[in-house]
Amino acid sequence: MPLYECVLIARNDVTQQQVESIADAIATQIDTDNGIEPGSENSSVKKREYWGLRSLAYRIKKNRKGHYMLLGLDAKPASITEMERQLGLNEDVLRFMTIRVDAIEEAPSAILSRKSDDRERSFRGPKPAGRFDSGRKRGFDDREEFRARDEGPREDFRGGNEE
């Protein structure tokens, strides 16, 4: 059977468990179409990755964020067509895209590997000069010449010539 990858985006209002249940419904529908008992070891879903709640590039149906899910499928074209029809009817699914691939990679996708790289690079280096510890920028009154003027004259400075 041909191999497919399907990425779906669900609304940000739903929970991660509801997104997983959408993926479960897809898996059971494809397994029954292929004559496989749902939940068995040789399932039609070869890969399943939850990418998390991510920002969308543009608003889709008044949503700015969405839950992303990747599915690697081994299915007949007719069952893929039925899956796409079911996803189009589901109100929680904003967008989906299914493509045919030559092989489903077992390694984590680029999205998940980039997430792990971000966790490793948490230290950003020293803070740039010109900022306070709180992170706010220096204002007009924070310059040294104004702070010195506000402190008043120093006690060791008496002004004039003393001999």
UniProtKB/TrEMBL annotation:
GO terms for cellular component: cytosolic small ribosomal subunit. The gene is rpsF. GO terms for biological process: translation. Residues 114-123, 133-163 have a biased composition (Basic and acidic residues). Binds together with bS18 to 16S ribosomal RNA. Signal peptide: none annotated. Keywords: Ribonucleoprotein, Ribosomal protein, RNA-binding, rRNA-binding. Belongs to the bacterial ribosomal protein bS6 family. GO terms for molecular function: small ribosomal subunit rRNA binding; structural constituent of ribosome. Residues 112-163 are annotated as: Disordered. Pfam families: Ribosomal_S6. InterPro entries: Ribosomal_bS6 (IPR000529), Ribosomal_bS6_sf (IPR035980), Ribosomal_S6_plastid/chlpt (IPR020814), Transl_elong_EF1B/ribsomal_bS6 (IPR014717). This is Small ribosomal subunit protein bS6.
